[in-house]
Fold this sequence. Notes:
Bound molecules: 5'-O-[hydroxy(phenylacetyl)phosphoryl]adenosine
Largest sheet: 9 strands, mixed
CATH superfamily of the largest domain: ANL, N-terminal domain
Number of helices: 10
CATH architecture of the largest domain: 3-Layer(aba) Sandwich
Strand content: 15-25%
Strand order of the largest sheet: 4-3-5-6-7-8-9-14-13
Radius of gyration: 23 Å
Structural class: alpha/beta
Helix content: 25-40%
Amino acid sequence: MWNEKIERLSREEIRKLQSERLVAQVKRMYEKVDLFRQRMDEKGLKPSDIRGVDDLPKLPFSYKSDLRDFYPYGLFAEPMSNIVRVHASSGTTGKQIVVGYTKNDLEMWSECIARMLTEIGADKNSFIQVSYGYGLFTGGLGAHDGASKIGATVIPISTGNTKRQIQTMIDFGTTVLCCTPSYALYLGEEIEAMGVKDKLKLKAGIFGAEPWTEDMRKAIEDKLNIKAYDIYGLSEIMGPGVACECKEQAGMHVWEDMFIPEIIDPDTCEVLPEGESGELVFTTLTKEGFPLIRYRTRDICSLNYEPCKCGRTHVRMRKPSGRSDDMLIIRGVNVFPSQIEEVLIKVSDGDITPNYQIIVDRVNNNDTLDVNVEMSETMFEDEIEAVEKIEKKITDMLRSTLGIGAKVHLVNPKSITRSEGKAKRVIDNRKL
Ligand code: DLL
């Protein structure tokens, strides 16, 4: 098991450790990652110019588009023979992005989650139901490995089949539930409807992968009779567990021995003073397979360096309040409007126009996605069969591209409100 002292180092000790690790990481990446070396050279920087954390702002940023441009393995810093796992997430266009882990990376990842589980009172006597999706998404296997690390009994049920989820919770004696907050709320409602709340042994839940509010937390805690904790992460940096809430439920501790967070102004790219809100940027310090320097997450939040009552010294990030790009998170799945547009262009064939609108809502605590597309003047809405055929084609393609279902509606020509400026393509009615 890890040395728990690392979670309580003094701020000076954290900075010293980060500096040592940063220097080593920059040197290693300069040797092993062509794109990083090129960007350093363009700035006239040598690894020896980076002597510690104070030099971080000199280093070049990295972006999600880099992962697309060097798809699939072009940014890895280890030969594939040392990569033992890959995961993937949505890219800004139809192509997914791929991340890779060495054995040691998986160890560090599971440690991040194990730290959180231990803090919230889970141990080898716990029954941890992992209802995040298993597969290329990092949620399922990430939470699974963290739960295994503390020796808990893992219930790897993955997503879906709500009745079976609830029956399993009851029969297997689940004490900790891991899933998206919106699914937790939905489970809570079903549990109420089934009248089985008193049959549950649940004590805590670890919820993340999408934004959620304090109101949602209250509703989940009430419906499931548990403590609901927030967990943050992104595939590019590792997966769930980059930052985790402690018992205080007052911000998520970023594990600073592994990651350096910065907050920048997304427009000027200047580092913002402590406490200010801006775009979160991460540098990985221990990652071997796929390290990143100054990665622009596009998540908007702020950092709080004040000591936490729990005694952990690692900085806390506030709940992300939005994004500086147009990525939507629908039922825990990352969706870029450009992915939807690409599908529409592919299907087009003269029957539909490039005028479309994406409408996201939350009905009964479930995200809904509707895509309205104007048909062309040559199509008539009374050609019901033809209309349905196109709607189905788009629906199927969206499902395979995005990984989630959408309701597609062909609407009359010119019925989508035109804008004088930029077209308003996305209407997000959820109050997040
Ligand atoms: O969602 C990893 C994850 C899985 C985190 C399970 C927590 C639990 P991606 O699919 O790459 O990875 O999506 C990353 O999701 O940049 C945020 O915009 C958003 N996100 C993740 N956790 C939270 C959270 C996983 N707790 C993107 N609150 C990130 C708000 C979150 N947004």
